[in-house]
Amino acid sequence: MSTAATETAGPAVRVRFLGEFELTVNGAPVRRWRAGKARGLFQYLVVHRGQMLTRDRLYASLWPGADSSAGSSLKVAAHALRRVLDAHPDGPGDSGITLVYRDFGYVLHVSGLWSDVDLFQEYVHSGLRAAAAGDAPLARSRLRAAADLYGGDFLRGESADWVVEQREYLRALALRGLGVLRADAEEREDSVELIEVCRRVLEIDRHHEETYRALMAAHGRRGELACVRRWYELCARRMGDELALSPGRETQQLLRTLIPSAARTVAPSGGPAATVRALRPAGRRAGVPAWSANARTGVLTPSSVRPARPDSRAPAALTRIAGPATA
């Protein structure tokens, strides 16, 4: 996939996939599609633009179960797509879009394209590389920009297999970037950013138990014990109602550590020594920070509240959590 053009370059074609789908050509939104599958065909082709996609592959992705040798659905959708976007290869319009039939399939070319998916991936990958290299300010800038750009699930509401696959990949990428920002906020004890990052994580994955623990610990440091209990109860309710699971041992023990009286409502599991062990990630040695590369799923141990340190004080945390530079 090619690198996204910047917004300031004034590309002729702008596509938003994250959240509600939106296509704008030369400043005008495209809302009317002449065939039901023309929009889906464009979405698939623009994600794989520049590649020759065979008829069999297109049918398997867009018309699963249909006979590609006998069906005319692809031809109808391609014809409608050319009319909607003025994308005929023999007489292209001023959109910069051309749809070409070549051998046994189609290839889409788009010049001057801005895509939120391209830019999101560019921000996350460059942010992770910067974090791994110890450039904390650049890492924060890129990863915060990626979080702001992530406006929702990829093609929200669509259920085709290829959409779900792309959606889950981008979700995982967003969670990784947010994980780096969360670990950095924990290191700097910046509770404002930590809570905001956790909110964004739960918008993507409402069952992300590590995030509930981070929120419980953050409020525990501030002495906001009612908030600690409410986050635990929300975690327990969502996991129970939607996954038929109970909060894990680490989450239960964190609650008991922050609110000793909660021991009456949480199943016991081994006393004080077990609590101390459970507050460390599995396999982590005592004294190793919870955000180190060997303890990325750990729980932040409650500590006294100290003023947030400035950004420049925590490059090591970003380096450790980012892991190897991303290609």
Largest sheet: 4 strands, mixed
DSSP E strands, number? 7
Strand content: 5-15%
Q: How many helices in DSSP terms?
A: 12
Compute the average pLDDT.
81
Order of helices and strands: EEEHEHHEEEHHHHHHHHH
In short:
It contains twelve helices and seven strands. With 327 residues, it is α+β, with helices and mostly antiparallel strands. The strands form two sheets. It has a four-stranded mixed β-sheet with strand order 3-2-1-7. It has a three-stranded antiparallel β-sheet with strand order 4-6-5.
List the helices and strands and how they pair.
Blueprint: E1 13-16, E2 22-25, E3 28-29, H1 38-47, E4 53-54, H2 55-62, H3 73-85, E5 97-102, E6 105-110, E7 113-115, H4 116-132, H5 136-149, H6 161-188, H7 191-204, H8 209-221, H9 225-243, H10 249-258, H11 271-278, H12 315-322
Parallel strand pairs: 1-7
Antiparallel strand pairs: 1-2, 2-3, 4-6, 5-6
